[in-house]
Design brief:
five-stranded mixed beta sheet, mainly beta, globular
């Protein structure tokens, strides 16, 4: 599924949603064309690790249930506590959000190549709800 947005001019809303089981408990957020190596987690308690054009979020593994993921452009739409704040390079202007194998994903078409990103999780370990806030 592909969603198109115009950051900064779009009305506050959910931009994309995905409910799925995530192999190995890993949710990947990246530029659609990124092949960049993502660094290992610095500790077992770290929930998010990021590179320039991609980040990985620990979530509940698929054998324990599904995870709800929402991509939003307004902080009023987020659920949970913030675990990450940073920037992602998205030179293709398409952000891919999904499992590590790419079997279950959504694409969000952006109007810019660099975005601010905040990650909110409902649980500190094995999150079942992830809010990805895209900002200018």
């Amino acid at each position: 599924m592909v969603y198109r947005i115009d950051i900064g001019r779009e009305a506050p809303m959910r931009l994309a949603e995905l409910t799925a089981g995530f192999k190995w408990g890993v949710l990947l957020v990246k530029d659609a064309n990124s092949t960049e190596q993502i660094p290992n987690w610095s500790s077992p308690d770290e929930q998010v690790t990021a590179a320039n054009s991609a980040l990985v979020i620990r979530v509940m593994p698929d054998d324990e249930g599904n995870v709800d993921v929402q991509v939003v452009n307004d902080s009023k739409e987020v659920r949970g506590m913030r675990y990450f704040s940073g920037h992602l390079a998205v030179p293709s202007k398409t952000l891919k959000v999904g499992d590590a194998l790419g079997e279950q994903s959504v694409n969000v078409v952006l109007d810019k190549e660099n975005i601010g990103v905040e990650i909110y999780l409902d649980e500190p370990m094995q999150a079942t709800c992830v809010s990805l806030l895209i900002r200018d």
